[in-house]
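Exercise: predict the structure of this protein bound to flavin-adenine dinucleotide.
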Amino acid sequence: MREVSLRDSNAEMAGGGASESSSHGRRGFDYLIVGAGFAGSVLAERLAAGLNKRVLVVDRRPHIGGNAYDHYDEAGVLIHRYGPHIFHTNAQRIVDYLSQFTEWRPYEHRVLAQVDGQEVPIPINMTTLNKLYGLNMTTEQEAADFLAGRAEPVEDIQTSEDVVINGIGRELYQKFFRGYTRKQWGLDPSQLDKSVTSRIPTRTNTDDRYFTDTFQQMPKHGYTKMFEKMLAHPNIKVMINTDYREIRDDVQHDHLIFCGPIDEFFDYRFGKLPYRSLKFEHKQLEQEQLQAVGTVNYPSEDVPYTRISEYKHLTGQIHPKTSVTYEYPSAEGDPYYPIPRPENAELYKRYQKLADETPGVTFVGRLGTYKYYNMDQVVGQALALYKRIEEAERGPAAG
Ligand code: FAD
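Solution:
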C-alpha cells in the first residue's frame, strides 16, 4: 500500500512517473473509491489485481480498515477501535478470497448476559433456563416444552416485541430483550421492525456459541494487517485523512465507487437517513483478565452501556494487562446502524432511485446501501459488484 498526501497525489496526476496515465491512456485514475473499509478495499484490490485498473482510495478517517480497524493501544493490547468485530460466515468463497491476505486463528464467540445478578449464556439456551429458574433440564424436549409453556402466541407478528413474546413469552422478553433493545436503538421493541430481534435465536440445547456459522475465525495478525495486504498492489494509492468532498474536483477519474453514506453524497436532498450510533469507552486494566468470555451483555436499563468486550479472548493475545471496550448507544455520532423502520426504507428507496439515475457512480457497502451488513456480506456484495464490472469489460464468459 502506498499512502500519499493530497499534494503528492496531485503532483503525480499532474505528470511524471509510471502512474501518470490511466489504462485508457489519460491522466488520473480509472476508479476513485471513497472508503477504505471492506467494501472499498475489496473493490480496490480486485480492480487493481484483476483488471489492472489504477485506483485511488480515499478515507476521511486517519486509518484504513473502516469499522474493522484494529490497533495496539498504549498498554500494547490489540483492540478494535469501533467495537468487537468477529468474523463469521458460511461462504467458503469469501474465506478463500480473504485468505489471500491473512492467516486465521479459530475463534468461536461466546456471550454472557448479566440477568438477575447472574451471568448466563445468550442466545438463551438450556443452560440459561436451568440457571435462571433453578432447573435441571437435560433434554431438548424438556427445554422446548418449558419455552412453549411460556410463549404467548401473537397472531400477526410485526414488531421486535411480537417476535420474542410469541417465541418465549413476556418474562424472558423483559429480562433479556426489552431493556437491551431500548438502550441499543433508543426505541421500544414494539416500535422496531421484527428483523431486529429475529436475528437472535433461542436454543433448546446447550450450544453456547453466539454464532453457528461454518467458519468462525479471526485474522491471525489483526484486521488492519489484512487490509494493508489487500491495498498493497502497486496500482492502488491510498489517501487517509481525506474527505471525498475535498478532492472530488481535483482528482480525475472515470468511475466513482462510493462506500460512504448515500444521503450525504446527495447533500441530504430528501432528508437524513436515520442511524443509531455508539460511543466507545476503551479502558486498559492492570489485570490479566476481566471477564470469562469475549463479551458480556447488560440488558438492564439501570446501567447506561449495553456490553463490555475484552479483546484478548478474540485475539488470543497473551499479555499481563487487558483492554476492554464499553459500548454506550447514542443518537449522535458516526453512522453505525441503519434504523430498520418502514419509513426509513422508503426514504432510502428515494435515494436509491436518485443513485440509479446518476451516471458514473456506484454505491456499495453498509453506508452506501443503508443496510445492516456483516463483514462477510459486505465482502460478498463487493465481489458481486466486481464480477458485474468484469463482465461488462470482458464479456459474461469472464471467470
Ligand atoms: P465501513 O467499514 O463503515 O467503511 C466505510 C468507510 O468510508 C469509513 O472508513 C468512512 O470513514 C469512509 N467514508 C465515509 N464517507 C466518506 C467520505 N465522504 N470521504 C471519505 N471517506 C468516507 N460485522 C461482522 O461481520 N462481525 C461483527 O462482529 C461485527 N461487529 C460490529 C460491531 C459494531 C459496533 C459495528 C458498528 C459493526 C459491526 N460489524 C460486524 C459490521 C462491520 O463493521 C461492517 O460490516 C463493515 O465495517 C462494513 O464495511 P463497509 O466498507 O461497508 O463500511
